[in-house]
Amino acid sequence: MERRSFIKRTGLATAALWIPDFLKPLENFVADEYRNLVIIQLSGGNDGLNTIIPFENDIYYNSRKTIAIAKNTILKLTDDMGFHPSMTGLQGLYNDGLMCVINSVGYPNPNRSHFRSMDIWQSATDANEYKNTGWIGRYLDSSCSECNHPYLALELDQTLSLALKGDTKKGIAVNNPQQLYNQTREPFFKQLKDLATDNDHDNVAYLYKTMAETYASAEYIFETNKTYKNDFEYPKNDLARQLKQIATFIASGLNTRVYYASMGGFDTHVGQLNRQENLLKQFSESVTAFIQNLKSTNKLNDTMVLVFSEFGRRVNQNASNGTDHGTANNVFVLGSALKKQGFYNAAPDLTNLDDGDLKYQIDFRNIYASLLNNWLKISPGKILGKSFDYLNFV
Amino acid sequence: MDLKNLYHLYSRAGFGISIRDAQKLQVKNKNEIVDLLLSIEGKQAYLDCIQLDEMPSGEQMKSLSKEEKKDLGKEARNKIQYLNTTWIKQLVTSPAPLLEKTTLFWHGHFACRIENPYTIQQLNNIQRQFAFSPFKDLLLAVSKSPAMLQFLNNRQNHKQQPNENFARELMELFTIGRDNYTEQDIKESARAFTGWNFKADTYEFVFREKDHDDGVKAFMQQTGNFNGEDIINIILTQKQTSVYLCKKFYRFFVNETIDDKRVAELADYYYQNNYDTGKLLKKIFTADWFYDDINVGVNIKSPVEFIVGLSKSFSIIPPDDVLLKFQRALGQVLFYPPNVAGWPGGRNWIDSSTLLLRLKAPSLILNGGKVDIVEKDDMPEESFNLPEIIKINPDEKSFYADVKPDELIENMLMPKLNAKKKNILSGNAGTNKQLVLKIVSMPEYQLC
């Protein structure tokens, strides 16, 4: 459905009467086509080699004597690569041409600390560079200098990740629209939020402005979310809850460009087989439900999903039937508007390792640059600080 | 000293001051009070939470199984949490607030994040020991500390195979700042720090001569077979180092918005006085301009300033899990800086979520509410595993029932309030407890 007409029909245009000035729908964001980006962060370092398995590779089986995935159970996709057996849902999406797998994604001088590597992915910097802002935050900074709408980038959490913090603008963390709404409706808060002054250079004004924006955003998100009742069936887990909420937001016509969801638990040093199977099953089922939900609301064409983890794991398993922190990893992109379906590139080269770790072939910022330029239609130069070639998956 | 100025001084040189304490100090003049803040004889409390014999030796480490190592990691994290809450409480109760505040400044300046409770405690004590000393003494001690040697990989900086991490951060973050050195300077100075190491069992600095590259290095237009200390000396002869440091002092202690002229004055002074930090602080806090309106109530409290200030104001010590949970939710956990660059500070502290929590938390803490914060699940090895809902026991005794409302407002809110805001606060007269709960819920309470 075309965005502009959608807004008119659902009454947001009339609603403009009660929406404060700075919250009116953004005409400049309502381009010819309205596009969302949904980012799913797998925290802890998902073991990519047991997710997308190079089942014809002896090195793989030799390196993982007790935790390799048995060949006959693998969901085969190509002559030499297949999914973990618990990802039947994703296999269906793959077969329908709704998924692109990019192998060997990483960055130079990889850092094996969770928090530091996550910082690098979220801030989109070199490994030896420290930025206080994230790539989505800088997207907010650059995309629209005169508007201040935290909900343009929305994280399904109680606190906001670095990824969504810009220099002058920040996204908003919303775990539950009702809860956020209630938090902001306390009488004293209400009384204060109207006391904002205009002096922008002053921190007092900055606090009042943030408060007023939060107040208004909470209301806008709550009211908009109510306009769509989502009956689609999802599995019962936290990622599914987040994704269902995002699908509801999208279907309700929320003016959000970037959604951020996350799932933890992938730090499988010990007893990996069962743990990862369970996690990948939840992940696959949740994402599959989400994609089908988007399809059912006609929003799949407008949505691109990016899935990443802060690092992959070492090729050799450890002595506790697990894997330790590694480097390069696979990244998934899902959507119906993909230009490249299936595998973007070849399986990682297990003969050419860097001290037991995969060497990256594609810098993750090439993927960001492609999504920014080709999908969100904004020049990534300022956001990423340097130039990265675009990949043709989108 | 005027009460208003006294409040300002203590909000920057400490974590605030109660009305009662301020009234006692009021009879002294500015110089006397600043001298008092700087006199720390007998008031230096070193953190002493972790003893050397609690740490496993290198030999023991080798024989541990994966599971045992994992347990050890958990234990180390528990100890760092203990260190964290012990320090927070010390910040609240210390008789030497400026010393602790300056230690907090160095904690962010020489930011270090490693999972070794003993060496991280050692580093914190170095930062306290040399807090007011000439900067060179502090810098040398930090550079030789096992925590920093490990964190910035100087242990891997070998004669045959230099590692540049320490040399780079030394210049980029600790001393002179970006664009004031070349990549060649980093390469050459990294060689000068080869051989700087520590003993794995005693955590004492050791200079391994065999691993030291004593060849000729060309560094910042000088040539010689420099060692690490020579490199530090050369960096300190650059005026820019003083400018870089004074900018940081200025942002932290005076104003997040830099006044170039003032910073230049301070940088001259610091440089001429052998980078004596105690003297510099005295210069700042006795300057008339420090008390100008433009510098009062304009900085955003860091989460630690916020938590400590609140606790101090109301003579409460929240339970450990509350202290940890708020630090994490507000984005500043002591001993867990985001990276070697430290906490960015200022407006970076504030987004919709943190502001909501900051506005809400004080009244919850003071009024016995429940704090419901779910921990983010993205730090698998550093998760605190705190209860999701924390019930806080109210403390009824310190709501200043005997103090006039205007005095309470002046004491707790640093920025000037306009008439409307004043009216909201004291308009419909209630008890002082009601007033206090409103005061701490004002956005102005976030500023110092």
Give the helix/strand layout:
The complex is a heterodimer of chains A (394) and B (448).
Chain A: H1 3-9, H2 12-15, E1 36-42, E2 52-53, H3 58-63, E3 75-76, E4 82-83, H4 88-95, E5 99-106, H5 114-123, H6 135-143, E6 153-155, E7 172-173, H7 177-184, H8 187-193, H9 203-226, H10 238-252, E8 258-263, H11 272-296, E9 303-309, E10 329-334, E11 342-343, E12 362-363, H12 364-375, H13 381-384
Parallel strand pairs in A: 1-8, 1-9, 5-11, 5-12, 6-7, 6-8
Antiparallel strand pairs in A: 2-4, 3-4, 5-10, 9-10
Helix pairs in contact in A: 4-11, 7-9, 10-11
Chain B: H1 3-13, H2 19-25, H3 30-38, H4 58-63, H5 66-93, H6 97-109, H7 117-129, H8 135-143, H9 146-151, H10 165-175, H11 183-192, E1 196-198, E2 205-207, E3 217-219, E4 222-224, H12 228-237, H13 239-254, H14 260-272, H15 277-286, H16 303-313, H17 320-330, H18 352-367, E5 370-372, E6 389-391, H19 405-412, H20 419-426, H21 432-439
Antiparallel strand pairs in B: 1-2, 3-4, 5-6
Give an overview in words.
The complex is a heterodimer of chains A (394) and B (448). In chain A, 53% of the residues are buried. In chain A, the strands form 2 sheets. In chain A, strands 1, 5, 6, 7, 8, 9, 10, 11 and 12 form a 9-stranded mixed sheet that branches. A 3-stranded antiparallel sheet of chain A has the order 2-4-3. Helices cover 35% and strands 12% of the residues of chain A. Chain A has helices at 3-9, 12-15, 58-63, 88-95, 114-123, 135-143, 177-184, 187-193, 203-226, 238-252, 272-296, 364-375, 381-384, and strands spanning 36-42, 52-53, 75-76, 82-83, 99-106, 153-155, 172-173, 258-263, 303-309, 329-334, 342-343, 362-363. By secondary structure, chain B is mostly helical. Chain B contains 21 helices and 6 strands. Chain B has helices at residues 3-13, 19-25, 30-38, 58-63, 66-93, 97-109, 117-129, 135-143, 146-151, 165-175, 183-192, 228-237, 239-254, 260-272, 277-286, 303-313, 320-330, 352-367, 405-412, 419-426, 432-439, and strands at residues 196-198, 205-207, 217-219, 222-224, 370-372, 389-391. A two-stranded antiparallel ribbon of chain B has the order 1-2. Chain B has a two-stranded antiparallel ribbon with strand order 3-4. A two-stranded antiparallel ribbon of chain B has the order 5-6. Chain B is globular and about 75 Å long. The model of chain B has no long low-confidence stretch (mean pLDDT 92). At the A-B interface, helix 5, strand 7, helix 8 and helix 9 of A face helix 5, helix 18 and helix 20 of B.
